[in-house]
Amino acid sequence: MAEFVRRGNLVAPYGVGSLHAGLGGETYLVAGLDQWFQPELSRYKTAADGRLFPQEFDLDEPRLADFIGGRALRQPPDWREANSADGVNPIAKINMGLTVPMLRFPAWRYCSSNKCKRLFRADPWAKDQASCPDEAHQSYVMSSKQVFLVVACVDGHLGEFPWVDFVHRGEINPCLEAKAVLRLTHAATTGLAAYTVKCDQCHAQQKLQGVLGLEEDGPASGSTSMGRIAKLLYPGGKPAKCTGPMAWLGRSDGITPCDRSPVALLRGGSNLYYPDTVSALALRRTAGHNDFTDLVNSNIFLKLIWESLIQSKENSPEEIVKQMRGLEEIQHYLDGVSDQEIFDHASRVEVGDKSTTNVQGIELRGSEFSALASPHDLPHLKVKIQQPQHQAPSSFQFRSTIGAVNQVSKLMETRVLRGFSRIRPTTQFDQYNVERRISQLSRSKVDWLPAVTTQGEGLFIQLEEDQVKNWEQTPAVIERHHLVRGIGNPLRSGMPSISPRYILIHSLSHALMRILATNVGYSLSSLRERLYSNPDLGHTGVLIYTSEGDSEGSLGGLVERGMLAEFGLTVRSALNAISWCSADPVCSEPPISRLDKRENLAACHACLMVPETTCEGFNVALDRRSLLSHEGSGSGFFDVEFGSI
Q: Are strands 72-74 and 448-463 parallel, antiparallel or unpaired?
């Protein structure tokens, strides 16, 4: 089997542990990092024909690397045919035949013959589709199909649906000991009610109706939610527990038992995978970083020579400069590079790159806010500042509330995958044990994580700090904030750190993105947000940007829309759009009981929510009444200016 996936998608949404839908309706599970960067030895003899050098794919973003604990940031490998280097210098035969391993999942299949429909388990690593065990049906063009159900839990485990236990309801039965022959029949109706699992030996049969999802919707943590399949397996008895399977790591059962409830899901369900990623913007060159650093990192030939030189402890920085200058075959690569640049890079590597600031455990956003709030003209960050206070009132109507609208014509973002969750996403407001819910990417700890860099453009909007502080102290805002922090909703009891300014800037970001998507040439799902909310530092702002690995990252529409005269109209349109909602008055009503499980105040898909790929907080902590109040309550940050237009 061979499926092609864009490199950037292997961090999200098709990272380790995710299901990728391929041709013919087959789904493939992305395997753990232990199995990455392993050549297909059946086709390529890497040891003889080339060399495995995973460091070629490493990215240089020290701020982010230190934040995740010093691990290397490594791009997924690209595909290289073995014959592409024929006749080329042998040193160029690097990383041939590398693939990202995927296994067929679920491994259970059923015969496509209407007279058979036999259920059987196939080899998940087989390159070809498995045939029905009945020889009479093996000649079919599509002799079998994957089943459509899998089992997961809120702690990120994923395994096969328990077909044998399900049809026998967990009873001790001779069919469990022997190889039970099961069949998945289909009636002339729709939905899961049409499917019945039958056992040929004991003639037991059970319908699939009612197996999906949760029996009761508990809080976002999922700690009290129970999967319907858990009770169906043992009717009248103690509900079944998850066995801790990690199919992406090749484990059918966990090393330690899992006490969570199993949940049956469709294999194509969107709640089967929520990647946990962290990203950072490239701000400025670190001390000791120069053009020669980029040259070495971008040229595999130079990088191999460089690695061989620095591995020798006898080579001083001066000796490395001398040897680099003595190699005639690489001199054309070094045009314009001074000896001092080579010396600085050698010295930096020799001392272990002590010039890099250790920011582990420190919020990455603080330095980004400072960089975006000031003019820059760097290779990966170009910022032009615009301060409305210096403009005439007629050219920008929101001079007292918006402090800056900066045009970011160029930015580079590095995004790394740390783990993932299932069934419900983890957010910064999650009251449940987040570390437990973030699933591991490999069997044993590896010294790298999958990452990707993208480039794009954006707009940085900064609110006036004095106005934000005054707004936070108004009685209407304080009262409304208690609705978020109060115990009236179990979801909100896990949000003690959420601040009014976070809700304000988050809601403003969504309102602006919904309007910008109709004017700048980007789809709403291609826009992203980076929120900056820190009362201690006086930071309240948002970067609305697009960052992709292809041409959709540099169309220029966002920057053009950032001209103050144009942006004033955008803000006005956004506020006008959220001043009412087609779901009112339900959308605007506050939560009144514990049974109200909304994660927002006045916000819904009709007025403020955006695609989950766009929002960094999974559409949590939104309130359009923080922008404009309702019936003069005074909770709106833009009440005065919007009312005067």
A: parallel
